[in-house]
């Protein structure tokens, strides 16, 4: 079926109502940018799940990162989005303004250059992300261990997608289909979602990031209503088995662990932590589950589970904006609240 026929079918669809959840922040942004919700029948609703790494990072982790950045002789190294995520009392950005040492980089490996230039400083990389970025953190560990670098450690808050999707389904999330994460699937392979599709008899579609690719994936999900199957609409980069070398590199340095998801609680086996033999390179990642300092009026947890839309949160667009985020979903360009507000999405 060509693109125009797909658009006509989705616009005229009059079958069972469907909520389709994307669990990738880049998909959330692409859906809004391409105006895809306006192309769909009112019986097809796209909702955003826990696909933004910083959005699901609990306040306790942010507090620990700030504590390290404020420690004399220590510098916290991170990607840009994390510095604006609220902890229980402040943000990394605000702490840096008060003298804490925070360095933003584009690659984890940039930490090695900092460590070489400043041998008397302890550098801690904030390893936040999904399966997509885990290989880069494994490469960082490979360099640290092989070169016997002593002034670099990791503060980990890595998450894995299949366990959280499993938790959403077990918890009764109102979802009839999943737009599987494209970037994650490059590493895991499409077969990572087969057990979930079969267990819950729900369709998954791996999609790319153009408007055409997303529409094709949505069409595939709608046509597969009530069937437990995984479809790959991103075959130019996603295979069934995934990137075996990346998977092996990850497992060399990390093992699955219980992980806390902001707004969702702790989920067994949904995180990655350093193997016991590399514990000396950990900067205090264990036990950072608490999220009690979050703004109690923030509804990020309900947004991430598809129970409400971002516009249904009482803070949305009022006191919570990209310039003054009260919840993690408004911080990142991949966050659902940020995307909805910046694109004027109201459906």
Descriptive report:
It is a single chain. It is built from 13 helices and 11 strands. 33% of the residues lie in helices and 18% in strands. The mean pLDDT is 93. A hairpin with a 3-residue loop joins strand 10 (254-261) and strand 11 (265-274). The longest helix is centred in the middle third of the chain and has 13 residues, at 134-146. 51% of the residues are buried. It has 2 domains: 1-296, Rossmann fold (3-Layer(aba) Sandwich), CATH 3.40.50; 300-342, no CATH class.
What is the CATH C level class of the largest domain, in words? Alpha Beta
- Share of helical residues: 25-40%
Mean pLDDT: 93
DSSP, total strands: 11
Annotation keywords:
347 residues, alpha/beta, Rossmann fold, six-stranded mixed beta sheet, five-stranded parallel beta sheet, 13 helices, 11 strands, 33% helix
Describe what is shown at a glance.
This protein is α/β, with parallel strands linked by helices and 347 residues long. It folds into two domains: 1-296, Rossmann fold, CATH 3.40.50; 300-342, no CATH class. The chain is 33% helix and 18% strand.
């Amino acid at each position: 079926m060509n693109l125009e026929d797909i658009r006509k079918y989705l616009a005229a669809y009059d079958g069972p109502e469907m909520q389709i959840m994307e669990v990738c922040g880049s998909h959330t942004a692409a859906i809004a940018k391409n105006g895809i919700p306006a192309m769909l029948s009112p019986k097809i609703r796209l909702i955003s799940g826990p696909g933004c790494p910083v959005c699901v990072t609990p306040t306790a982790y942010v507090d620990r990162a700030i504590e390290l950045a404020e420690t004399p002789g220590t510098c916290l190294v991170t990607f840009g989005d994390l510095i604006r995520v609220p902890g229980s009392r402040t943000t990394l950005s605000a702490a840096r303004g008060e003298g804490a040492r925070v360095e933003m980089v584009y690659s984890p490996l940039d930490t090695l250059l900092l460590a070489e230039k400043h041998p008397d400083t302890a550098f801690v990389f904030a390893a936040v992300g999904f399966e997509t970025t885990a290989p880069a953190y494994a490469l960082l560990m490979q360099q640290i261990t092989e070169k016997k670098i002593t002034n670099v450690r990791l503060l980990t808050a890595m998450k894995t997608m299949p366990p959280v999707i499993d938790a959403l389904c077990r918890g009764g999330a109102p979802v009839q289909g999943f737009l599987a994460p494209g970037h994650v699937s490059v590493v895991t392979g499409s077969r990572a979602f087969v057990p979930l599709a079969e267990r819950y008899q729900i369709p998954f579609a791996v999609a790319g990031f153009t408007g055409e690719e997303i529409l094709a994936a949505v069409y595939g999900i709608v046509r597969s209503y009530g069937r437990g199957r995984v479809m790959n609409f991103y075959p130019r980069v996603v295979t069934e088995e995934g990137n075996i070398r990346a998977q092996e590199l990850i497992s060399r340095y990390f093992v699955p662990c219980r992980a806390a998801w902001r707004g969702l609680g702790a989920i067994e086996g949904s995180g990655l932590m350093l193997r016991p033999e590399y514990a000396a390179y950990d900067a205090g990642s264990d036990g950072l589950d608490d999220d009690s300092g979050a703004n109690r009026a923030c509804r990020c947890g309900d947004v991430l589970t598809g129970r409400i839309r971002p516009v249904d949160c009482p803070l949305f667009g009022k006191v919570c904006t990209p310039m003054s985020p009260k919840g993690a979903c408004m911080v990142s360009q991949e966050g659902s609240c940020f995307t909805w507000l910046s694109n004027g999405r109201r459906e």
